[in-house]
Amino acid sequence: MKIKQITLYILACAALVGCDSRIDAVNQQMASIRNQPPLPIEPAPIFTPVPQFNYAAHQLKSPFMPSSLAAELKIMAGKRVYPNFSRAPQPLENYALEALNMKGSMRNNRGQILALIQTPDHQIERVQVGNYMGMNQGPYYSY
């Protein structure tokens, strides 16, 4: 039993020696750092102005547009499209396009595909290619 007590005392003393405070060493190191002269600050770099670039290739072909589309846009630039006010208005032209919902599609006996459009009044209207929808006289095209 005495051996256990002696061993316990020795371990306790070793633990207390290991817990010795090192604050004095840290304070001494910090004092030596504070006593050193400060390092000089480098001056900010001087930036030279960049010469202005004038873009002069506005008239050239755009590299991001296919040549076929560019040719088609050039042809269409002179054409103006006007709505046909002489035709009779269709039922779906009374509603804003945002208010109409597509509910499905079906094929009739002749093989034509018809779209089923729901109005805000919960009526289902059949629409085929050439019909007009929305308040801006937009024709319906099927792709």
Task: From the structure above, extract its key features.
two-stranded antiparallel ribbon, Pilus assembly protein PilP, 143 residues, 15% strand, 3-stranded antiparallel β-sheet, alpha+beta, single chain, elongated, 3 helices
Give the gist of this structure.
The chain is 28% helix and 15% strand. It is α+β, with helices and mostly antiparallel strands and 143 residues long.
Shape: elongated
What is the radius of gyration? 43 Å
Helix content: 25-40%
Distance between the termini: 98 Å
Q: How would you classify the quaternary structure?
A: single chain
Describe the fold and architecture.
This is Pilus assembly protein PilP. Helices cover 28% and strands 15% of the residues. The protein has 143 residues and is an alpha+beta fold. The protein has three helices and five strands; from the N terminus they run αααβββββ. Strands 1-2-3 form a three-stranded antiparallel beta sheet, with no helix packed on it. The mean pLDDT is 84. It has a domain at 91-137.
What is the topology?
Elements (H helix, E strand, L loop, with lengths): L1 H17 L4 H13 L31 H10 L24 E7 L5 E6 L5 E4 L4 E2 L4 E2 L4
Protein name: Pilus assembly protein PilP
Pfam families: PilP
InterPro entries: PilP (IPR007446)
